[in-house]
Design goal:
heterodimer; A: mainly beta; 4-stranded antiparallel sheet; globular; B: alpha+beta; Ubiquitin-like (UB roll)
């Protein structure tokens, strides 16, 4: 069997897609109908423990928790108060602006403890809960590491959208903030350093040595080789061999190196997936053709994966948290679009099928490997 | 007894019907009603008023007896009809797309 549970956050609720064979699917939801669900994810330590970040501009932020794999949910803590006087960051016009909580973008459960979960929020900050989401405490070393007062929002806001915990060493963590850049902690999130050397963001950021100011869209790593990171930046697909201390470009022959998600095959740390998007002002695939690109060599050489994906008149986007891989062999790959489709491949990207076609705009896709 | 009418999403969240009934000791003001509502249904904390400063969330409106009280002093007494339960205090999601 090749059981999986795909967790989908959308603009109008959450959906749980379940399959025992990655071919036939059952669809449950919408959960939290009418609410924006930026992220739904599961605990690696307990697959029945799920967390969801639900929000509307009307009623603000809620965190929901499930202890039965998404059948029932319970609202838990939603107090994301910054510690102390939060000070200011920069606004779009370059003026100081007081830090103010807006919403949760990403939830990252601990690999080992289902009650420990991290939250990345807008305005950019990192929170941690050790009681299953009932209470949250800011890890102030992220926001106060030294450059925070110079951070400026990207188009989507000043959001901490990526949190990675090294599965082999839980004290090593990575975050990414738009538009500040990538950061690493080697002490469980207490202290942080910017890791943006080698990122080039011309013409928006003319200084090639700028410590922060980069619009990092997504970072990922493979558990078998955690020192190697892959990044989809605003423009450019990047790779680091040294836990982010230095980056080099591996965009190679991609038709566009703009995009949002990046994922790695669970069975091969050199097999990487991205979804090229035409440009930062045209958030749809080049030529109206939805193509996942796969590199089997850790970047630079990319092949288009098109079987089962629309190859004409397709103008959807795939957002940063909307691609995930399962742990089966061959690896299953899943992604959702702003047009409401969730596509799945049970053979490492060679062939794709829509699992659902008509959901609200997809904000996030995560997958749990069940059996 | 004060009657408070909630918008659809908050009824679902709090697991209540269209109206919540509250008993309030002392002056019946908007602040007293909202404090009592949040005390009886803690899941609503932060959904109507900002957690940090206690201000009304931008897309939430308050009405009573056909009057928009959204920008009124939260410590002013509510109309007698609300204080006696003859009329409900309305919490409304603002008209806004999305």
């Amino acid at each position: 069997m090749a059981g999986v549970r795909v967790l989908v956050g959308t603009k109008k609720g959450a959906f749980v897609l379940t399959s025992e064979d990655r071919a036939t699917w059952s669809v449950a939801g919408p959960h939290f109908p009418g609410w924006e669900v930026h992220h739904v994810t599961g605990s690696p330590a307990d697959p029945d423990r799920l967390y969801a970040a639900q929000w509307t501009s009307w009623f603000g932020q809620l965190i929901q928790r499930s202890d039965d794999g998404g059948s029932t949910w319970e609202p838990v803590g939603n107090d994301f108060s910054y510690a102390g006087d939060p000070g200011t960051h920069l606004w779009y016009d370059g003026t100081p602006r007081p830090w103010a909580f807006q919403k949760v973008w990403h939830l990252e459960p601990s690999p080992n403890d289902p009650d420990t979960v991290f939250a990345g929020v807008e305005d950019a900050a990192l929170f941690k809960s050790t009681d299953g989401g009932r209470s949250w405490k800011e890890l102030t070393g992220m926001r106060e590491h030294g450059t925070g007062d110079t951070w400026q929002p990207g188009a989507g806001g000043l959001c901490l959208h990526t949190i990675i915990i090294d599965p082999n060493d839980e004290s090593r963590m990575y975050t990414a903030i738009s538009a500040a850049g990538a950061f690493r902690s080697d002490d469980g999130g207490v202290t942080w350093k910017a890791i943006n050397r080698g990122l080039i963001s011309n013409p928006e950021l003319p200084d090639p040595d700028a410590e922060v100011g980069h619009c990092v869209h997504r970072i990922t790593l493979h558990p078998a080789r955690p020192e190697v990171l892959f990044m989809q930046k605003h423009w450019d697909v990047m790779r680091s061999e040294d836990r982010g201390d230095n980056w080099h470009e591996v965009s190679g022959n991609l038709p566009s190196d703009f995009g949002f998600p990046v994922a790695i095959d669970s069975n091969d740390p050199d097999t990487v997936f991205v979804v090229p998007i035409k440009s930062d002002s045209e958030h749809y695939p080049p030529d109206g053709r939805l193509r996942v690109y796969r590199s089997r060599s850790g970047g630079n050489d990319w092949e288009a994966l098109t079987n089962g994906l629309p190859q004409e008149n397709c103008y959807v986007n795939v957002l940063r948290d909307s691609m995930a891989v399962d742990a089966h062999d061959p690896c299953g790959v899943y992604f959702g679009t702003t047009g409401g489709q969730v596509y799945g491949s049970a053979d490492g990207g060679d062939n794709w099928e829509p699992i659902v076609r008509d959901l609200p705009a997809v904000y996030s896709v995560e997958v749990q490997t069940l059996s | 007894m004060i009657r408070v009418r909630l918008p659809h999403h908050l009824r679902t969240l709090a697991g209540v019907g269209a109206e919540v009934e509250l008993d309030i000791d002392g002056p019946v003001t908007q602040r007293a009603v909202l404090d009592a509502l949040e005390a009886s249904h803690p899941v609503l904390i932060g959904t109507i008023r900002d957690r940090g400063n206690g201000n009304r969330r931008p897309f939430v409106r308050f009405f009573a007896c056909r009057d928009d009280l959204s920008n009124e002093d939260p410590d002013e007494p509510l109309p007698e009809a609300v204080a006696t339960g003859a009329e409900p205090y309305l919490i409304v999601g603002a008209m806004a797309g999305g």
